[in-house]
Amino acid sequence: MAKGKKNQKKPHNRQKAEKGRPPQQQPKTTEVTCTGLTDDGKGIATWKGKRLEVPHLLPGEKAEVAVPKRGPAKVVKILEANENRQKAPCPYFYECGGCQIQHMTQTAQYDFKQGVVDRLMKPFGKPEPIMTMEEPFGYRNKNTMTFGEGKKRQVIGGLYAANSHDLIEVDRCLIHDPKADAIIGTIKKMLSSFKLQAYNEDTGRGFLRHVLIKVGKTSGQVMVVLVTGTPEFKGKNNFLKALRRDHPEITTIIQNINTRRDSMVLGNQEKVLFGKGFITDTLGGLEFEISSRSFYQINPVQTEKLYGKAVELAGLSGKETVIDAYCGIGTIGLIASKQAGNVIGVEMNKGAVKDAIRNSKHNHVKNARFHQDDAGEFMTKMAAAGEKADVVILDPPRSGSDEAFLSSVAKLAPSRVVYVSCNPETQARDLHYLTKQGYNVQEIQPVDMFPQTYHVETVVLLTKKS
Ligand SMILES: C[S@@+](CC[C@H](N)C(=O)[O-])C[C@H]1O[C@@H](n2cnc3c(N)ncnc32)[C@H](O)[C@@H]1O
Question: Complex ipTM above 0.95?
Fold first, then answer.
């Protein structure tokens, strides 16, 4: 849900900016009929002969909609509702930018995601029914709330409003782990009794910027990261004592110091204040160490299904050489290593590679090696050296893979390619390339990794044409 936050513009001091500004005109309202949905779940309508995208509107619905000069259109009143509409369970849904489709019933959410995948994958075959989640709330193991000052310098702890960098006070986010929000609530209350200020983005002063909580869903371990604008931590010992007294479930506490003036959540400096500085969690029968910065899939229940499917599609017999490209902390490769001859992981992020190596030792995996490199360059070098691989598993970022990587796949000529993606649009682009390079798509499996949001994960099996 935090996707895109980093790139959002820094806000101005809104209070200052509003002084002397003429009162804002109310945006015009108009009646529209929704004819379809964008791939990110917005309604599509026509206004003044042009396409208008309206968040929270469903196909067939008639609505009165406000159309401001700048920014997204907004539903003022639904005049005729679609049967798939429901009252969003979260009271912050219409303001907050975290979830986009809570106004759809759960079944309609699945139909929407299935429809997006079916359309994008049509040239390659018919996707399997989406893997759904039995309990599609409270699934996140990584939960962040941001702290700031309100107009009266009061502490605000919450999430950013949609399409903006304005903070809205949120006590409970329904996709967060409830334990995480309870700890954040306690910290919010403790700030004033410990005379600690929230960080003010405009002045660059103040103490608490964010609280990041990671929860090991199977281990029950809890990491609290206090992201502070200054290294000084007044009353630290008593603060930690009080926090741990109220939340004995906390297993480690870290202070991350972020003095940057941009909107990156974590700074580069860290102090472990309590515990080991990491938590562990179990996935695919292995135990992974998770630090504050490690990339780790945020929905472990669905990740078990996703990785299980990816390993099944790899069709391993115990002898194969498997490449785990874009491997992060090595999760997929290490899980696959139990059924493979050997695993070669490649990942650009240095910290993640260190984590992957540590995780392979921790799990006594002897047949996996990890390399820090650009995946495309690494594969190009492998192909040039005449090396071979039996299976390539790739799980690139949202932007997808690149030509260097995909053309090297064709040269390495693995019999199977298992492509995991969090963006079916870039995945479809890359599948077009691979199918022209001698591969056939055999199976397409969508997985709902991010319920209540428009995001959908897919895993695709390609095999070499004989
Ligand atoms: C979607 S994550 C997948 C991580 C891992 N497979 C998992 O499931 O946890 C994508 C990973 O690709 C890495 N990455 C991004 N661009 C890369 C590149 N050009 N070469 C290698 N790794 C890259 C990112 O650092 C990130 O760890």
Answer: yes
Q: What is the pLDDT of residues 309-364, one digit of tens each?
A: 999 999 999 999 999 999 999 999 999 999 999 999 999 999 899 999 999 999 99
Beta strands (DSSP E) in 23-161 are 28-33, 36-37, 43-47, 50-54, 62-67, 74-80, 142-149, 155-160
Q: Which atom of ligand 1 is nearest to the CA of 374?
A: 20
For the chain, the residue count is: 466
122: helix, strand or coil: helix
pLDDT in tens, 174-191: 999 999 999 999 999 999
- Residue pair 253/224 in contact (Cβ under 8 Å)? The answer is yes
177 is in an annotated binding site: no
Answer yes or no: are the C-beta atoms of 143 and 98 closer than 8 Å: no
Please tell me the pTM assigned to this model. Answer: 0.91
Residue 169 has pLDDT above 70, yes or no: yes
Q: What are phi and psi of 406, to 5 degrees?
A: -65, -35
User: Residue written as tokens 């110091």?
Assistant: 257
Q: From CA 103, how far away is CA 96, in angstroms rounded?
A: 13
Q: Whose CA is nearest to atom 7 of ligand 1?
A: 328
Partners of residue 142 on adjacent β-strands: 214
Structure tokens at 199: 């960080």
How far apart are the C-alpha atoms of 347 and 360, rounded to whole Å?
15
Q: Report the nearest-CA residue for atom 13 of ligand 1.
A: 326
Distance of CA 120 to the CA centre of its chain: 21
347 is in an annotated binding site: yes
Separation in Å, CA 51 to CA 36, 47, 54, 74, 101: 11, 6, 10, 14, 20
The ligand 1 atom at the shortest distance from the C-alpha of residue 402 is 19
What are the two backbone dihedrals, phi and then psi, of residue 386, each rounded to the nearest 5 degrees? 75, 20
The answer to whether 419 is annotated as binding is no
Q: How big is the CA angle at 71 (ends 69 and 75), to the nearest 5 degrees?
A: 95
Q: Are strands 342-347 and 368-372 parallel, antiparallel or unpaired?
A: parallel
Centroid of ligand 1 to alpha carbon of 402 (angstroms): 13
Ligand 1, CB cutoff 6 Å, lining residues: 295, 297, 326-328, 331-332, 346-349, 352, 374-375, 395-397, 422
Asked if residue 119 has pLDDT above 70, the reply is yes
Structure tokens at 421: 């993606």
Active site residue 96: no
Structural domains of the chain in order of their starting residue, each with its CATH number: 29-85 (2.40.50.140), 114-134+299-464 (3.40.50.150), 142-283 (2.40.50.1070)
- In this structure, the residue with its CA closest to atom 26 of ligand 1 is 328
Largest interatomic CA distance in the chain: 73
Task: Tell whether 442 is in a known binding site.
Answer: no
- Give the separation between CA 46 and CA 43, rounded to whole angstroms: 10
Three-state DSSP class for 208?
strand
